Amino acid sequence: MSNPYLLQPIKIIKSERLAQDINLITFDDSFIKFIPGQFLMINIPGFGEAPFGIMQPTCTENKLQLLIRGVGDLTNKVLSLKKSDTVLVRGPLGNGFPLSHMKNKNIVMFAGGTGIVPIKALMDYVKNHQNNFGQIQLFYGAKSPENIFFQKELNICQKFADILLAVEKHEKNWEGNTGLITSLISSKTTLVENSVAVLCGPPIMYKFVIEKLKKIGYKDQDMYLSFERRIRCGIGKCQHCTCGDKYVCTDGPIFSYDEVLKMPEEII
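^ thats the sequence. predicted structure below, dont judge the formating
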């Protein structure tokens, strides 16, 4: 897209229900190129505008995907749309993951629920640039097995990454780990030396994952968190996502943990 601040129409190619009130929407992205961790603003006149993390279908360069949960007028409207319908988008916006800082390092990823979206985007990037990175781990926690998304893609990723899954609620046919994502973290299961950690999920997850990571040796500057806190305009004008002298929409949504500690208000 030549100007990411201008609204542009984008066509829906496919809308797939993954769980109750959650759809995976695939769009034609012939003009949008993004860095993992960036976001788009979806706009539907009369329904509003909101930010969504971006990813791509595996092995595809001319489509993009958004995982959308129906929680209000805008998102429920998007879920009602069908193939060939269009929405307006602005973006990509914000700063993505610091790929240059991650180069030649091990990457340990933590995803909670729909926070898998930016993590999957990063995983796909790493898969296509494996020579630039060390070992890869993914810790993915969800409420139930049906809320573990992209299982087919994750199975493919096991060829180059160590993937650990956990669900909060045990179910009859689930043979994996049961418990919180933090139950998977230890000095024996988690890469530490020459490693960076990236986290995307609910803020409460950040608090306890960071506590565990610090205990096994992670430094504040080597942990990166994804936020979508109160983003409204996406370009740093409305002041709604202000944290001191930082804007989540323009300075983030990816922040290192040492940056977060310098913000004057608690955001996790």
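The longest strand covers residues 8-19.
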